[in-house]
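Before relying on records like the one below, remember that each one covers exactly one chain. Contacts with other chains, cofactors or solvent are not represented anywhere in the record.
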Amino acid sequence: MTIPQYADIEDAARRIASMIHRTPVLTSSYFNDETGAELFFKCENFQKVGAFKFRGASNAIAKLPDEQGSKGIVTHSSGNHAQAVALAARINGYKATIVMPENAPRVKVNAVRGYGAEVVFCEPTIEARSETAQRVVSELGATFIHPYNHPDVIAGQGTCALELLEEVPELDAILAPVGGGGLISGTAIAAKHLKPGIKVYGAEPELADDAYRSFHSGKIEPVLRTDTIADGLRTSLGELPFEIIQNHVDDIRTVSEQSIIRDMRAVWERMKIIIEPSCSVPLAVMRDQETDLTGKKVGIILTGGNVDLDNLPWQ
C-alpha cells in the first residue's frame, strides 16, 4: 500500500462532495476561557451516519471500478465504520456485507441493516472478525474495505481537515482522537501541506494508549486493554497510519477516563450538541495538559455523535 498524498485528498474531496455533508465549525467562549486558546470545533457528529467515518468509506467505495464494486463490499466493524460502509455501498448501488461481533449493540446492528446491508455475526474477537470477513470475501469475490489501514480511506478522512482549514486558514494547531489512525494520518497530510508550520496532535485515553506508546517507541505497540469509555479508540494502530504519524504528527497525548466523561458532558451542556466519548479526548488534552497552545487558534475534530442514550457515562 502506498501512502496517500495531498493530491489524493483533493481528489477525494471532489469525489465525495455530492455524497457527504460539509459539516459546520462551531466555537464556544466557555471552552476558550477554560483552555486559554481560541477553539474551532469541526462537527463530524453532524456527518451522515453520525461520524467522520463516512468520508473514508465513501471515497474508497466510490473509487472502485463498477465491475469490482458490483461483486459486493465487505468490512468488519461493530461501530461507525460499519454504518458508513453500508450507506456508501447503497448510494453507489452495491451490496454490502458487514461482519459484526455477536455482542455488538442492537442499535448499531439495526442501523447497518437499515442502510440495506447484510449482517454476518462472529465471535467477539479480532481474529474471528478477520477470519469471517475473509471467508465472505472469498465466497463472494467481494472487495474488503479496511476501517483505517487503507490509502483511500485515509484520503477520505483527510477531507475533514481540508474543509476545516478552508474555513479557518489561520489555525495554529489541529487536535484529533487516535484509534486505528486513519483520521489523524489523513488530517496530518492535509494540514501539513496546506500550512507547513501547523502543529498536529493526536489524543488518546490513558486506558488505550497504544498509539502514544508506539509514537515514542518507534514501533507499533500492542493494545493492552480495551475498557476505556471511548469505545471508538480501542483499536490498534494500522501500519499505514503509523508510518504517516511518525512522519507528520507532532505529538500524541493522553487523558484520564474522568476527564473524557467530564468534557463529553460539558460539550452537551455548554454547546448543546451530542458527541460520543471519543470526541472529548482532544478537548480534555487542551484542558488538562500543559500545552504550547495558550493564545493560539486550535481546531478540534469532533469525530461523531453515536451514543447509547440508555447508557450515558454520567448516569
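The radius of gyration is 18 Å.
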